[in-house]
Design brief:
alpha+beta; three-stranded antiparallel β-sheet; 25% helix; elongated
């Protein structure tokens, strides 16, 4: 057995950490952050951002996110949009 000072910090997803950095650099501005195969997956991803299920988006409520179906040239795509609003801002 080996005693340590404490467990290492929770690992962050690098892709999401980079997205968060970009969103925080432009507070309040909406950005297209993901495209998903279905609207259900896009909605789940938006919920994960809002509730900070991924640690990069913590604490919960500092990011707003939504999923939309966008039709272009007769083809649908399922897009996740997000923006940084900071702590204490009302959620949409």
């Amino acid at each position: 057995m080996k005693f340590i000072a404490g467990p290492p910090p929770e690992r962050q997803n690098v892709k999401h950490a980079l997205l968060v950095e970009q969103l925080k650099s432009r507070p309040g501005k909406w950005a297209e952050v993901q495209r998903k195969a279905t609207i259900s997956r896009a909605s789940s991803a938006a919920q994960a951002i809002r509730s900070a299920q991924l640690t990069s988006y913590a604490p919960a409520g500092t990011f707003q996110a939504m999923a939309r179906t966008v039709v272009e040239n007769g083809a649908a795509r399922y897009v996740v949009y997000a923006r940084y609003v900071g702590a204490g801002e009302p959620a949409a």
